[in-house]
Design a protein that fits this description.
The chain is mostly helical and 67 residues long. It contains 1 helix and no strands. The protein is 97% helix and 0% strand.
């Protein structure tokens, strides 16, 4: 009888470990997706800043040519 209880405890622990592992994997995937979104957003922001700077330079260059 005691052996049966020990086997059930081990099975329960294994199920709990599997559940926690699944939760960790889900959390990891969620965090990974968030980081990808942040990275994409920052890449777009950098590109926009470069475009703005390029336009500023062109405007300044045009202004200097007029002088």
């Amino acid at each position: 009888m005691r052996r049966d209880i020990q086997l059930n405890e081990r099975a329960y622990s294994s199920k709990e470990i599997d559940k926690l592992t699944e939760q960790q994997n889900t959390n990891y995937e969620t965090l990974l997706q968030l980081e990808k979104q942040k990275s994409e957003f920052l890449q777009k922001e950098i590109q926009n800043m470069r475009e703005e700077q390029k336009n500023e330079w062109l405007s300044q260059n045009d202004f200097n040519k007029r002088l």
